Amino acid sequence: MRVVDIFQSKQGEGLWTGVESTFIRVGGCNLRCTFCDTPYASWQHEEGEELSVEEVLGRIILLGKRHVVLTGGEPMLYAEMIPLTRQLKKMNLTVTIETAGTLELPVECNLMSISPKLSNSVPTDAPGPLLRLHQTNRFRPDVVRWLLSHYEYQLKFVVDEPEDLLEVEEYLRQFDAVNPQRVLLMPMATDTATMREKAEWILAYCSPRGYRYCPRMQLEWFGNVRRT
Predict the structure, then answer these.
(1) What pLDDT is recorded for position 130?
(2) Which of 61, 124, 170, 228 has its CA 20 to 30 A from that of 53?
C-alpha cells in the first residue's frame, strides 16, 4: 500500500477527540472533494512509499500508542487493510478507520468513522472526467448501510452553509434507526475564526435533535498544518 505518512498526534475530530494516536495516512482517493484538506494524499502528488503490512506494523509498534487511526486519502482502496487490521486487533490496539463511505472491505476496527460527501464537496470547476468521477462515487448509501450494520460507527458530515443541513436530513432518511448521538456535524473551515463563526448555527441545530457538534480541534491545537 502507498503510505504518505505515519505520525503521532491527538485525534482532533469525532467521538474520540483528544486521544493520543498513531496515524497511518495512505495515498490515493476515489473522490475529488473541493474542500479536501489532504490533497497531497489524494491526487495532487504521488507522495509516499510502498510499504508492506509487516513494515507498517513495525512502525506502529515503534511508536507505541494504543490507538491507531487509518486515514488517507481513502484507506478502503487497499485490500491490505484486511490483514493489517486483523493483526492490529490481535495486538489489542484500538483502531479507527476514516472513510468516505464509498467502498466496503471486511476489515476489523473499533470505530468506523464515515464521512459521507454532500453536494458541497462537488468540484464544479474540475475537468469533466474528474467531476463525473466524484459525482458517480460520492453517494453510496448501499455501502454506508453495510458499514452501519457491521461496525460501531460515527457519521461525520462537513457542513458549510445552513442549507447543507437539509441535505444531511435527506441523507439520513436513507437509513433505519441511525443513532443521533452518532451523527456529527463539522464546520467546513481551515482556520479557528471561521470554525467558531459556523459553530453558532451548527450547535443550535444539533442540540434539539441529539446530534453532536464536531469541531476540528487540530486547528485549535496546531493550526492548519500537516501531520495533525
Answers:
(1) 82
(2) 228
Q: Summarize pLDDT for 119-145 with one digit per residue, the tens.
A: 999 998 878 888 888 999 999 999 999
Q: Does the pTM of the predicted model rise above 0.90?
A: yes
The answer to whether 46 and 145 are in contact (CB under 8 A) is no
How many helices (DSSP H) and strands (DSSP E) are in the chain? 7, 9
CA distance 67 to 63: 11
Q: What is the grid cell recorded at 63?
A: 511508536
Reduce the DSSP state of residue 11 to 3 states and report it: coil
> Residue 98 carries which side chain, given as an amino acid letter?
E
194: left (phi over 0), alpha (psi -120 to 50) or beta: alpha
Give the 3-state DSSP-derived string for 22-38, with helices as H, strands as E and coil as C: EEEEECCCCCCCCCCCC
CB 16 within 8 A of CB 67: yes
Q: What is the pLDDT of residue 181?
A: 97
Please, what's the largest Cα pairwise distance for the chain?
Answer: 47
Contact call for residues 34 and 118 (beta carbons, < 8 A)? no
Q: How many residues does the chain have?
A: 228
HEC string for 142-198 = HHHHHHHHHCCEEEEEEECCCCHHHHHHHHHCCCCCCCHHHEEEEECCCCHHHHHHH
Bridge pairing between strands 94-99 and 183-187: unpaired
